[in-house]
Amino acid sequence: MPNPYRELLAVPGARRFVAAGFVGRMSMSMVGIGIVLLVSAVTGSYGIAGAVAATLSLSFAAGAPLSARYADRYGQRRVIVPTVLANTAAFALLIALTMLRAPVWTLFPAAAVAGATIISMGACVRARWSYVLSGSPGRLQTAFSFESVVDESIFVAGPLLVTFLSTGVHPAAGLVASSACTLAGTLALAAQRGTEPPPRPREPGAARSGLLGDPAVRVLASVLLLLGAVFGAIDVSGVAFAEEQGHKALAGVLLGCYALGSGTAALWYGARRWRAPLARRFQVGLVVLAVMLVPPVLLDRLAPMMVVVFFSGLAISPTIIPAYALLERLVPPGRLTEGFAVLSTSVGVGVALGSSLSGRLVDARGSGAAFLVPLGAALAAAVFGLAGARKISKRELSSQTIAE
Questions:
Q1: What is the 3-state secondary structure (H, E, C) of 118-173?
Q2: Domain spans of the chain, in order of start
Q3: Which of 186, 212, 235 is nearest to 77 (CA)?
Q4: Which of 70, 155, 333, 383 has its CA 20 to 30 A from that of 306?
Q5: Which keywords does this chain's UniProt record carry (predicted)?
Q6: Model-wide pTM > 0.70
């Protein structure tokens, strides 16, 4: 029986850019937890830690689509190399200010610069898949499923690594490792010219407006913003829950169980041949996710929580994968990296909101109240997704008609 993932990795150059993307994206599962662990250890406040993490996420949301747009226009290498060098310097400054116990306000501009210079590596890698698999929509769905598996592998390994380094080695060690992964992976990706999508300069007279002018893209971005709130709230609430249970060092294991569930679902999803339209799969995933986030609110012991969050995570990938596949159909080829970055940064904004709100609730009422944040965000995402069903379905059908 043919293995679709083995065939995918046989595409020339794929293994190399997948490996570079894996290393470069490790920081996406490390940086938020790393900031929470470092800043809370120094200041003693989860509220401050969540606010600093939120500042970084919001600035990432502002900067990543712009750098992605320039990567589409001028080529990835010319944009991501100087940007990642600036990012490394910004993280070094943030870590130094925190460890030197500088005034709290100084952490926020440092976090803003660090966030604004984060490269959306997931967008760059997915754009490469779209380039090397152009004309093969079935294999592209498998590629997006594979990328979700990679993402979730990162969300299994990253929290474990950053928690171990920050609690067992030094409070700043997790962020140092995160920044090092970003630098190494980004430079390795930039060096691979054969799979880099060709630059697509803006044509004279082309619209300058952002992709959010498209109603269907707005629906996807809004839903992914709310899903980001789920992820950010789970991170902060999970760390606080583990600490309340007297096992802060197991926070990474708890969050890794959630990611492991999502990765398992992604493998299953990508190996299937689906008949249902993408939009319908997307909406079903949103509803299932909301239902699966009810049990964590009801638990007060660590071991059962690990089991429950694994099953909650099973609904993540079957929601995220169709979202990226829909986006690939909705935006022009010359703005694909930018489109993927819009979704990634929507998640980033949501992470900022979720981590900040849950951090405040942890400080005020403990982790039990904070777990209501991901549940509420998931319910809102389901409502938005179902309300925007007509816009998404209409655009999906029109894109299929054009392709045919």
A1: CCCHHHHHHHHHHHHCCCCHHHHHHHHHHHHHHHHHHHHHHHHHHHHHHHHHCCCH
A2: 15-199+210-403
A3: 186
A4: 383
A5: Membrane, Transmembrane, Transmembrane helix
A6: yes
Among the listed residues 84, 57, 8, the one whose alpha carbon sits nearest the alpha carbon of residue 355: 57
Alpha helices in 245-387 (DSSP H): 251-271, 278-292, 295-298, 302-313, 317-330, 336-365, 367-370, 372-387
Q: 291 near 339, Cβ under 8 Å? A: no
How many of the other CB atoms lie within 10 Å of CB of 194?
10
Amino acid at position 346, single letter: S
pLDDT, tens digit only, all 404 positions of the chain: 467 778 888 888 989 999 999 999 998 888 888 998 899 889 888 788 888 988 887 888 888 888 888 888 888 999 999 999 999 999 999 999 999 999 999 999 999 999 999 988 988 998 898 888 877 766 777 888 888 778 777 877 787 788 889 988 999 999 999 999 999 999 999 999 889 988 877 655 455 556 777 778 888 889 999 998 998 888 888 888 888 888 777 777 887 788 788 878 877 877 777 777 778 888 888 999 999 888 888 887 888 888 888 888 888 888 888 888 888 778 877 787 888 888 888 887 787 788 778 888 888 877 777 888 889 999 999 998 888 877 776 655 555 443 43
Report the alpha-carbon distance of residue 174 to residue 61 in Å, rounded.
Answer: 22
Q: For the chain, what's the residue count?
A: 404
**What is the rounded distance in angstroms from the CA atom of residue 374 to the CA atom of residue 229?**
7
- The CA distance from 57 to 197, in Å, is 27
At residue 192, what are phi and psi to the nearest 5 degrees? -95, 95
Question: What is the residue whose two structure tokens read 């096992």?
Answer: 247
List, in order, residues 6 or more apart from 94 with CB less than 8 Å away. Answer: 107, 110, 111, 114, 175
